[in-house]
Amino acid sequence: xxxxxxxxxxxxxxxxxxxxxxxxxxxxxxxxxxxxxxxxxxxxxxxxxxxxxxxxxxxxxxxxxxxxxxxxxxxxxxxxxxxxxxxxxxxxxxxxxxxxxxxxxxxxxxxxxxxxxxxxxxxxxxxxxxxxxxxxxxxxxxxxxxxxxxxxxxxxxxxxxxxxxxxxxxxxxxxxxxxxxxxxxxxxxxxxxxxxxxxxxxxxxxxxxxxxxxxxxxxxxxxxxxxxxxxxxxxxxxxxxxxxxxxxxxxxxxxxxxxxxxxxxxxxxxxxxxxxxxxxxxxxxxxxxxxxxxxxxxxxxxxxxxxxxxxxxxxxxxxxxxxxxxxxxxxxxxxxxxxxxxxxxxxxxxxxxxxxxxxxxxxxxxxxxxxxxxxxxxxxxxxxxxxxxxxxxxxxxxxxxxxxxxxxxxxxxxxxxxxxxxxxxxxxxxxxxxxxxxxxxxxxxxxxxxxxxxxxxxxxxxxxxxxxxxxxxxxxxxxxxxxxxxxxxxxxxxxxxxxxxxxx
Amino acid sequence: xxxxxxxxxxxxxxxxxxxxxxxxxxxxxxxxxxxxxxxxxxxxxxxxxxxxxxxxxxxxxxxx
Lengths: 504, 64
Hints:
The structure holds two protein chains of two kinds.
Chain A: E1 7-12, E2 14-16, H1 25-40, E3 88-90, E4 96-100, E5 103-107, H2 114-137, E6 143-145, E7 158-165, H3 170-188, E8 192-195, E9 201-205, E10 213-218, E11 225-229, E12 241-246, H4 255-273, H5 285-293, E13 301-303, E14 309-311, H6 312-326, H7 333-351, H8 361-376, H9 383-392, H10 401-407, H11 417-425, H12 433-442, E15 447-451, E16 454-457, E17 467-470, H13 479-488, H14 492-501
Parallel strand pairs in A: 10-11
Antiparallel strand pairs in A: 1-5, 1-7, 2-6, 3-4, 4-5, 7-12, 8-9, 13-14, 15-16, 16-17
Chain B: H1 21-44, H2 51-57
């Protein structure tokens, strides 16, 4: 078994303009996206407004096998209508940068390893910082936050995507994932000051998202949020693949947290695909996810339908053991890296969670908050602690507390700043994201639009029709696959000639 | 209330707790507190000066 599969992350950033509380957040988000595209230029980002090829989007198709009638859908579920007031771009690193609802969103390019997921997720933060720098040059000071709640009722997402074979029944995926996701937060939660959707009670909890999760399985992402989302937009050959769209997780600023979020989930999916899911079933998953989040001592137990009561760490140990049994003799380096971090974090959480400072987001944030509580005698309801919680995720390296801890070496780094800087510009090499990103940097001006599974060329402006290159196979279009061809062609017409001639 | 309990590691009942270990653990705790205090000193200067107003002003629209 391997951790390697096609994966990616999506981050909706919190956005403010200090001193202007009435600023329209959709407008601010559009400014951020346009600032990056115009500031970096067409070889780094498609001009906004032309950017996205919507032909393939089907946000209302449901994995359980039916399609929701459009007239019945909540308006906020429609993301496939091109709105000229919202900015949208595709970047030379293969990512999508756009306005999603009222937040600037970075959707990472498809990668194959959790380590690459960390690299291109961090690249997204850097993209946002460059956008802010371009805006600052024009005298507009905005702030962006990599968190998921405002503490006043609003939550916005950090999503994970996993490609799985279509033949695996969705309900078995959901059954295997629900108990895992309920427990996973103790490894990868971001921590939050305040309990309840509106922070009705003072206190500290493990997860940002737990209080906003209201059902176990469902299609919605903006209301009645589920533990397992059923949205079925594969952005690939639908007969072969399903793209699992996971909305239960928090934005993580610790590299180890991001690695474990993607890595442990990919391994659990491997178990489910092999029919080896441990078969745990929670009596009340929604109550359980909150109970675990609300107990940073990690002693909370949750009820299983078979009558057992397990802690989050005990649930995770059941999954970990099943993975060990199914691992097989050849364990690749990516898988080994994830398992080593999983084992050491789980062991430290069980004995002394404070050993996980720098690796686990909620533990790191909690250590900071407890430090202030001890030194300055603050109570949990103190607005200074809430302010620290928000400021923790400020992307700005001078203000952001996690960013400062990273800069001073207090967060364990898995990737170097140089690797992140390179990933801002260049696409990952092992998936079709490589073709998408390279087309943007090599053929700027001739790429009219792109999407996850297409690049639309306008070979000679005005003289020919648009040409759409479909990429329904996420593993085709990698550097190994198409690098020699891209190196050999002289222009877009030459490239298209070869692609058409080479079609099956 | 959740979150207000001490985060001290809990020993399992079936574990022995040898007395000689205690001073080492205590020393470790002191070192960690000193590390956290260093960090607090470092970030005191960048914390929002008017926390209440800052928190009040951080309002987001819901997303996905």
